[in-house]
Request: fold
Amino acid sequence: MSLNPTRRRFVMLAPFAGMTALAACSRPEPPTPAQMPVPTPLPMPVTPSSPTAQEPTTAPAPTTANLPIVDAQEAKALSFGYVAIASNADKARFPMFVAGSACSNCALYQGAAGETHGPCAIFIGQRVASAGWCSAWAKKA
Reply:
């Protein structure tokens, strides 16, 4: 056969080029168990024999007291109509405001009873005023 490029030769060789490209892009076969390397155990660390070094350490209890307090002027707080004092809620903008509703009696409030601020499911990573209010308020069951 000659090396003269013709349409007929191209049409005959094109399927083989496609199969070669597919074979090059296919996944390799996973190794069989016999081909897999055997892991070697790691050496155990050497520890001092003093009694204080062998006592288990405990992590400090997580606290929400160090979380920042929600700023009523930030974008998310403005979109929810958050205010630090519930009676200051914009009743014209939020007609669903119910007198007596506050963050402390909301189902989304996660603070303990009697706290002035606590975490909220809406403002993750921040604390809200227990006397505050926002449009996501839902009566605690």
